[in-house]
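Notes from hallway chat w/ T.B., transcribed later so I don't forget. T.B. wanted the structure written out for a chain they're using in a teaching module, and asked if we could keep both sequence and C-alpha cells in one place. Agreed to drop them here.
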Amino acid sequence: MPGLDPETRKRVGAAANALKREFERAIEERERDLKRGATAFADVDVTMPGRRQWRGGLHLVTQVVDEICDIFKELGFTRVVGPEAETEHYNFSALNFPKDHPALDAQDSFYLGGDVLLRTHTSPVQIRTLETYPPPIRIVVPGRCYRRDPFDASHSPVFEQIEGLAVDEGITFVDFKATLAAFARRIFSPTTPVRFRPSYFPFTEPSAEMDVQCQICGGTGCPGCKGTGWMEILGSGMIHPKVLESAGIDSERYTGWAFGMGPGRIAMLRYKIPDIRLLYDSDIRVLEQVST
C-alpha cells in the first residue's frame, strides 16, 4: 500500500477495513455457536467411543435350515424349492390323502379360492420332483408352510419345514433309519438320545416319528416338550406305493423314504429356547445370535 497513490490507497484501505470487520464478525459468531454447543452437551463425554451399531444377520431358523441342508448335501442330497400356493392335487390327493381327511377342511388349511391353498407341508415338491426326474432321487426341500395351528410354546401357524426324499432301487427301512440317525448325531451330538415311534401318515407306510431328548430341560420336562422330556423333530416313513404310482414311478421296481422336519423346533433345542414364539418376535437378544 505505501507505493499506491493517495486516492487508490484510500479505497484499498477502506476495502481492507471492511473485510477485517467481516472476518471479525464471522469469528465472533462462530465462538458464540461453539459456546452454545458446549453448554448444550455439557454432560456428553466426546472422548467416549461411539455406540456399537447393530448389524443384521441370518435368523436362527435360517441358520439351522442352511446347516441341515449342508449335512444332507454331504450325504448326497440336492436342495430344491417349490411354490407356496398349491393345488389340492399336489398338497393332498397325490400324497394319498383321502377326500374326507380333516386336513382338507377349511378350519385346518388356508384356502385361497377353489382348490388352491397355502401348502401345509413341503411334501408337494416331492410329487413335482418325481414327475420331473427319473430315479435315483435324493432331495431336501426347505420352505415355509401354513396351518391353522394355535400359536403356543411349540406350534406356529406359519413355520419352516424341510422335506427329505430318497427314491432308488433296493432302498429299505434300514437305510432310512441309518440316514436319520446320522443326521441326529451331526445336528445335536453323538450322545443325544433318539427314539422312533410308530405313527401314521397317508403318504408313508410304515410311518414313524423321530424324537430327541429335550435339550432345553435335559429330559426332565418343560413347556417346550410339554413335560414329556422328548421333542418330536420329524415325521417320516417309507413312501407309500400309491404316492410313487401317482407320480408315474414303478412301485414294484423302486422304493424310497421321506421325512418332514421342523427346523424351528430344532433351533429351540439347539439354543435352549423354551417357547417357539420367541423366534417370531423382534427381540434383539434372539435376532443377533449367531450359530456356532
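Follow-up for T.B.: The chain has eight helices and ten strands. Might be a good example for the class.
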